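Working notes for the structural subgroup meeting. M.R. asked for a predicted model of this chain before we commit to crystallization trials. I am recording the input and output together here so anyone reviewing the notebook later can reproduce the run.

Input as submitted:
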Amino acid sequence: MFYRKYLKRIIDIIASGLGLIALLPLFLIIAIAIKFDSRGPVFFTQNRVGKDRKLFKIYKFRTMLTFEDSYYEDGTPIENYDRITKIGNILRKTSLDELPQLINVFIGDMSIVGPRPTLPYQVEKYDSNQARRLEIRPGLTGLAQVNGRNSLSWEEKIQYDLEYLDQISFLTDLRIIFKTILVIVKCENVEFTRPDEISKHLGEVRKDVESS
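Returned structure, recorded in token form:
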């Protein structure tokens, strides 16, 4: 309980602060590459639901064409997967697009380890048990991310999140972090292979979605 209530947040602040300082040169290189590759901002921001249902703005490196540039010459909209830029494809495969979320961790919106931050429309679908995942800060990585990531169904991801909620500890977080490094090195489960009905609906109603 002490780790969950106090020490976890202290570790998040120290780790994210040191990470932002150490990775500043990489941030600059990625920012320049994004600007050279396509028009638009360096960062992609989106409203997500955090601890206790608090809305916050998540930060990622932009990996897709902007909405304004997402049309062919004849006016036909470009499909989401075709909107991914060359640099964006590299960022996604290496998970480098997620690095700006260290800012979210530092300011308290997120944690290093926890359930991935959820979109508002997804939270509306939660039952009382699934809503338990909102009792803690969302994370950069989590139990679902090291056990299948985007190959998991909606229900499977939430089940892993609830399992994590019931076993939060320093050793658990440490194991997840080490497993995350292995997953990133192997570039495993980057693409969505089991989209559920909710994910399909999102693709129909929003054209500015980046990977979760």
